[in-house]
Every structure is written in C-alpha cells, then in structure tokens.
Design goal:
Length: about 400
C-alpha cells in the first residue's frame, strides 16, 4: 500500500510552488505592487481557492458535526471515499478507542493513521475500480454484518466511494465492472447517471450496506460531491438510510455551497466585489466554456465563482487530462489576448480524471503559450498542453471532495 504525506498549504502551477505567505496587509500591498497585476490575480485566486477548501476539509467537518450533534458513542467507524482519511481522523479524535476501517484512493492515506491500533486502511482504484475496490467492499460488508444487535455504527462517506469500494453478485466480475465504468465515463454520463447504474448490481450501494448492519443505530456523515447534495446519490447511495429509516440518520457535513460561500467571503476580505456565486457548472465542458467565456469577456471587474461538475465526451484514445483541464484550456481560448482576466478551474479533491493534477489556472496568454491547443482539446490532452504552458494546477490530495470550482478574477 502506498501512503501519502499531507503537503503544507500551497500549490504547484507549471512546476512553480506557490505557498501561502501570511504577512501583514502593509507588506502584502507592497508585494502586490512588485508582483504585477497578473501575479496579484493569481495569488488572490489561490487564496480564495484555499479558503474554500479549508471550509470543507474532512477532519474539521466531522469534528464539528460530532460536536454539534446529540451524544453518540459508536462501536465501529467505517469511512469510505476520497476524503475518508481526513474524515476518519476527525472521528478518531473524538472517539480514539473505536475500531475503524478507512477506504480511500491510492495515495490518499498516510502512515500516521494506518499505524494506529484497531485501524485498518485500504487504498483502492479511482475512477476505475480495481481488485482493492472489491477487497474494500467485502471488508465494509463483513464489518457491518458482524456488529452486535446492540451496537452503534458511524459511517463516513465522501465522493469517490462508488469506485473505491464494491461488492458484486456472483454473476458479475471486476472486468465487467471496469468495462461499464469506462464506457459511462467516456460517453459523458453525469455522476447521477453513473451512480444509478452502479446501484443495480452492487451489494453495498443504494442503502444495502446499512440494511446489512444489524445494530440499533447508524449515523451517517457525508461530504457531498453531487448536485443537490442528495444522500441517495453520494457514493451511489452507500450511506442512504432509506432501507433502515428507523435506525439510520444522515447529515451533510460539507458541500459545494459551503465551499463557495467561504470563497466569496475570502474574496470580500481581499477587497473584491463578488459578482457571481452559483452552482451552475453542469453540462458539457465546451458548452460551458462558451457560456462562461462570453460572460467573463464582457464582465465588470470582480470575482466570479461557479460550482458543480461538468461532463466531457472522450475520444477513443484520450490523452492526458480530465474535465477541469479541458474546461480550463477551452476557456483560455475565449480570453485569448486579454491581460485583465485569470481563471482557475479545479477539482476540489485535488485530482481531475485519471491524473494527479487538479485542473488549470489560465490567463489571456495561455492559449498562445504552446503549440496547437485546439488539437490538444480534440484529443482530450489538455493536461499536456497546460503543462507546456506553465498553467497546470497541482495540489495533491485536499482531504475533501465537493465537486469542482471555477474562480475567475476580472480586473
């Protein structure tokens, strides 16, 4: 199992590490003048981004939910999703003696948690499930089924759980699951459509994991990565209480709206006008690029924030990149030549498709910074282009997953 050591606050753009420098306002103003308008915009966008991520970070979201909720002492903690590491840490901070199973993406856990007594960590595949995904699904099901009738369960769920853990019926193989998943992703299916298909065959999705648990109470804390924050859709309904409503209670502890609200607040603290803040980032990336690009080209100065999760239809042999990198590059065309607009497009979990980048941070100079951007878009190879243009945005795991954000500043 590979482990990840969390990074200090900061980001990598085009190989350059940009850290948060917490300095006084007078010195900050001097730095802004020295850096120039473009770098000032970039720095502001990154501060706004980090504020959004901090507001929905898994550990604190769980600690706050437990503190605010009525008294509950779990006998078992199950955490599954891209933010499972941090969510599990928060729960174990409140219940240090409780046994726990943490299921997360490869590279999203660290040795500190895995080394604790009574804690098991399984890393598995995302967005395409792997053998570890089946191991994780079986482990979740076995632990839930084995709990006593008078027991209490704390279930922590975040986006990515659908691929990270699965238990299949005897007539379905891992190859079948991979093929179905790849086909749905390649044809631009929405997360709701993908998760609806996953529920049909799964032995743990659609509330079946909770149904298999024989105890008296299960409390579900979820970080939402779906439109409308529907618990029945997050992780394909692995935390959906509908099959055991008398014993189960679910609560959303972090969401895209919470992230956007904190982003807007940070923008105001940085003396920007917030001109737009809505969850409208749905639909095909190229259609979104036209709509958002047209708006920003004619926009009055300020900060524009969009949240959601776009879709993309992939060619037969896609290159390097995901929906956020493609949207970032497509937007770069619409602001080509402008020296007053900067745009960040990124996945809040720190990954975009099957890559280790979160997205792209583009300006009016990006489109012309490397060869043949249109061909890169057609081949779904936006990541390679953005890297050449020093516009690839890399964060590492963020300990959350509340869909995607677009943050734009117009001077």
């Amino acid at each position: 199992m590979r482990h990840h050591t969390p990074i200090s606050p900061g980001w990598t753009i085009g190989g350059e590490i940009i850290s948060i420098d917490r300095v006084g306002r007078s010195r900050q103003q001097q730095l802004d003048v020295a850096m120039g308008k473009e770098l000032k915009r970039k720095r502001a966008i990154l501060e706004i981004w980090q504020a959004a991520i901090d507001a929905v970070e898994g550990r604190m979201s769980v600690i706050e939910a437990i503190t605010q909720d009525d008294v509950f002492e779990p006998d078992q903690i199950l955490a599954v999703g891209k933010a499972a590491q941090a969510m599990g840490e928060g729960a174990l901070e409140k219940f240090p003696q409780c046994p726990a199973l943490i299921v997360t993406k490869h590279g999203h856990s660290d040795l500190t948690l895995a080394a604790r007594d009574r804690v098991e960590v399984i890393e598995s595949g995302h967005p395409i499930p792997d053998e570890n995904s089946l191991e994780a699904g079986r482990a979740l099901l076995d632990r839930a089924r084995a709990m006593p009738a008078d027991s209490r369960l704390l279930l922590l769920v975040s986006g990515g759980a659908s691929a990270l853990a699965e238990a299949l019926p005897d007539d379905m193989t891992l190859d079948d699951l991979k093929r179905i998943t790849e086909e749905m992703i390649a044809t631009g299916k929405t997360i709701a459509e993908i998760n609806a298909r996953r529920k049909q065959a799964s032995l743990i999705k659609d509330g079946k994991l909770i149904e298999a648990y024989p105890g008296v109470e299960v409390r579900i804390y979820a970080i939402s990565d779906v439109e409308g924050d529907a618990i029945a859709t997050i992780g394909s309904g692995i935390g959906d209480p509908h099959r055991a409503p008398a014993r189960a209670r679910a609560r959303i502890v972090a969401s895209n709206s919470i992230a956007r609200e904190r982003a807007a607040r940070r923008a105001l603290e940085l003396d920007f006008e917030v001109r737009r803040n809505d969850e409208s980032l749905y639909g095909d990336v190229f259609e979104l690029a036209v709509r958002i690009g047209n708006e920003l080209r004619d926009a009055v100065p300020g900060v524009y924030i969009y949240g959601g999760e776009p879709t993309i239809v992939l060619p037969e042999k896609p290159g390097r990149g995901g929906r956020n990198q493609s949207l970032a590059l497509a937007l770069a065309e619409h602001i080509d030549g402008r020296d007053d607009i900067s745009i960040l497009v990124a996945g809040t979990d720190g990954t975009d498709g099957p890559t280790d980048a979160a997205g792209g941070l583009v300006t009016g100079a990006t489109w012309s910074a490397a060869d043949d951007p249109r061909n890169a878009l057609e081949r779904a190879d936006a990541g390679s282009f953005l890297e050449c243009a020093d516009s690839l945005f890399t964060t590492g795991p963020t300990n959350t997953n509340v869909m995607d954000l677009v943050i734009a500043i117009v001077d």
